[in-house]
Automatic annotation (TrEMBL):
Gene Ontology cellular-component annotations: endoplasmic reticulum
Protein name: Uncharacterized protein
Entry GO MF terms: oxidoreductase activity
Alphabetized Pfam families for the sequence: adh_short (PF00106)
Annotated organism of origin: Dibothriocephalus latus
Signal peptide boundaries: none
Origin organism lineage: Eukaryota, Metazoa, Spiralia, Lophotrochozoa, Platyhelminthes
Family statement drawn from the similarity comment of this UniProt entry: Belongs to the short-chain dehydrogenases/reductases (SDR) family.
Transmembrane segments: 6-28
Keywords linked to the UniProt accession: Membrane, Oxidoreductase, Transmembrane, Transmembrane helix
Length: 157
């Protein structure tokens, strides 16, 4: 074999090795992401330092309910807020039986009552809040839409 053939073989070997590494990494990536990094990069241990209670709005369905379950799994007591008392009681019972934490419920419609955020602050004064209330934007007044970024970014009105 000549030097040019040897160089071509080395280049092909490097390309083949890179392809194998890429395939192995793409196979292991979900395992690394969901099992290893989840435990090493999780801040679950730090949540209790913020306080014993977390407030979750929109906590009867979707991402709000998922947040409530995850916070309870972390050992926080959960103050659940939503429009439906029946759904709130169901979620509260689920959380209390599954995670052995305390829950409180508060029925509120955030589209009609603007002072609720201030009342919630005074009720428990937790340092960890999750605002997950959903709404249909086509039905809201324009001035309310300008307040939304501030509520979601700072957790306050």
């Amino acid at each position: 074999m000549g030097p040019s053939t040897m160089s071509a073989l080395i280049i092909l070997a490097v390309i083949g090795a890179m392809a194998v590494v890429r395939c192995v990494f793409s196979f292991l990536r979900p395992i690394i992401t969901y099992f290893l990094l989840r435990h090493f990069l999780s801040k679950r241990a730090d949540l209790k330092k913020a306080g014993d209670w977390a407030i979750v709005t929109g906590s009867t369905d979707g991402i709000g309910k998922a947040f409530a379950h995850e916070l309870a799994r972390s050992g926080l007591n959960v103050f659940l807020i939503s429009r439906s008392t029946e759904k709130l009681m169901k979620v509260a019972n689920e959380i209390e039986s599954q995670f052995k934490v305390e829950t409180k419920i508060f029925t509120a419609d955030f589209t009609t009552v603007s002072y609720l955020y201030k009342i919630i602050k005074l009720l428990l004064l937790p340092r960890y809040r999750t605002w997950r209330v959903g709404t249909t934007y086509s039905l809201l007044p324009v001035d309310y839409l300008f307040k939304l970024p501030r509520v979601h970014a700072k957790g306050q009105c």
